[in-house]
Amino acid sequence: CVLCGRTDDCTEKYGEKRTYVEYNLTVHYYCLLMSSGIWQRGEEDEGIDGFLIKDIRKEVNRAAKLKCNICKKKGASIGCVAPKCKRSYHFPCGLQRECIFQFMEDFRSYCWEHKPVQQFTDKEPRGASQCTICLDLVEHLPMYTVLKSPCCKNAWFHRECLQYQALSAGIFFFRCTICNNMDKFQKEMLRMGIHIPERDASWELEENAYQDLLHCYQHCDVKRCLCKKGRDYNEPDSKWEIKRCQYCGSRGTHLACSSMKSWEQNWECMECRSIFAKSGKYRKRKKHSLATSEKTNGTNCLLEEPPPKSPRQSSGSPRNFLLQSPKILCQNNLSPCSHLELPASNRVTMSLSPVMSNRIWSLTQKCLREQRREVRNILKELKVQVKTKTTRLNINAENIWSSALKGFRQRNFSPTNSIEVSFSNCKSRSKTNTSAASKHNFFQLLMHHLQNSSLFEGSSGKNLSLDFQAAKENLYFEAGKMIAVSLVHGGPSPGFFSKTLFDCLVYGPENVKPTLEDVADVDVAQTIKTIKYANSLSSLQSTLQDCCEFLAAAECLRPVTALCDKNMLVNDILTYHVIKRTILPLESFRQGLKTLGVLEKIQMHPDAFSSILCHKPERLSAEIICDLFTIHSSSDVNKVGGADFWMSYLQDVESGESVVTLEDILLFVTGSCYIPSIGFDPEPTIKFLHIKYPIGNRLLNCLELPKTKTYQQFKNKMELTIRNTLRVEME
């Protein structure tokens, strides 16, 4: 550069470096803008952005006589504008010495002694908070590298982060990241030396940036697509034409897959249908659709869920419920009994007996299953982002947190890469211990560690704790990221979030009212209880006097003149202790959950995701395992009783009449002792073959079972194989 003499080419620091061969001239854009003895005397298309070439030459000659007060070399073209200050310097030297360059009006420059500073009052909170751009901690100190927002009291930024943001956003989109104020924010940032280019945002200038918005959705989303050419096949004016949802347009179906005779028929996806159902507007539409189905010979839409099992107990075998599994029924062309509901009179007069309590519990579990099924489909949509490129994590099971943290922070880790886990402390590897099994085990250990870590507090339903060291090391962000990755990559759900924490993630902390159960600190809980249950004004005031230091720290110290004031006081204390006190960890945790778009889906489907984040997974039962596996059977299986033997064995295992557990069976086949929130890929299957002993193929999630003549032979072979296989793996 003819002005600063440096060869550096860093657009963010020095502006664009331009070379003009015809003038034998190279110059940094910022060096040209800030030089004290030159002005734009030409039009924009003359010279270099209005700076005439002869003026630039004159400025170079003028600067050649001036010595830089920083590097002591000639060519210092920039001078401090403060009265009586004669300091001169190069632009890069000024940056190094923390001078301020104002990219506005007369493009003034101030040396390190006369530069403008932001005013810090004694009431300003000391300590550190998150920079809302990079999410790293920023100290609340009057430093050149730290800037505070003029419009938001608690918004602090790194200067470097703000400069990058300004260059990307441009003058039309650069604003406060907290309150979106533009005028006041830009004025202060220009005063403090942030360059805001007069151009549109970088994302607006990208060619064809919004091209994807012009694409129509072309994919069949029904549960069982009938098209042999795939879900993306679309043939107009035929039964394989794809019809989009009439409400959202983001789901589709082949006409044949939803039993639609013509393209003119309306179709709505399950998500839109559920919204109508909740609003009460879908009932009339449902009657109309039933009438239509009668005209189409009763063909069921394959998008519908299987009909519910009958709640009645038959007088036959106690294992009859297993025979009603939707997967078995579909393959054997059977139909389950229709759902029988009690008459209205019975429902009104029935008291809450143990039977009714069991029925309510059963309905609750059924509702949770439906919600988890919805989550499974959502997570499968998110998994589309995962590529075949693999990232290997070397994990030490005895130090799961440190090794996981190291793996997630390694340079080549990306949430969109497939994850392969290797346990470094395993002395030997079993051939059956596949990478999928290691990954399942890793995520299970990781979620268990998070649940019991210092990042969370509480007994069952946990909230975020306040750990300053963890916040400084950005561990809340990593925890949120790990949970998001676990959900999409086939790990278990956390299942330990409190309703308050979940609501803060979905609706924002400002819209949530915590309860006394959210307070994990016994002393704090006792103080709040004492205030809440004070039965007289004098006892209330006495209690407040005893805990005045605590109330002052919680910003709740105030005069109380009536007993009824205690209710608002208790709410304020709870809000401070549970939410306001942990607002920074919460924001960091939310940012981590945004990984792979998980938080966005949680906010779009709160009811569904609460089933996996706030509720522990349902305990495995014979019914769940039976529904999980699809039986691929030949015509002679029923002759030898293979399917019946399998169902009877599950019932024996559930009732404790076996040496193995249902978890052992699942582990033997899939390598996982739990059902992932996203489900298994591929889905577990069963094959009956002419083999001697059962085989668990974990690559295909396939259980190959022997055909035996008696049930006792089947049971003996199952227990011998599963028990010995898992024992060898443990050893």
Automatic annotation (TrEMBL):
It is found in: Nucleus. Residues 297-318 are annotated as: Disordered. GO terms for cellular component: nucleus. The keyword Metal-binding applies. Pfam families: HECT, PHD_G2E3, zf-HC5HC2H. SMART domains: HECTc (SM00119), PHD (SM00249). CDD domains: ePHD_PHF7_G2E3_like, PHD_PHF7_G2E3_like. Pathway: Protein modification; protein ubiquitination. Signal peptide: none annotated. GO terms for molecular function: ligase activity; ubiquitin-protein transferase activity; zinc ion binding. The keyword Zinc applies. Keywords: Ligase, Metal-binding, Nucleus, Transferase, Ubl conjugation pathway, Zinc, Zinc-finger. Residues 1-115 form the PHD-type domain. It comes from the Eukaryota. PANTHER family: G2_M PHASE-SPECIFIC E3 UBIQUITIN-PROTEIN LIGASE, PHD FINGER PROTEIN. This is G2E3 ligase. The lineage of its organism: Eukaryota, Metazoa, Chordata, Craniata, Vertebrata.
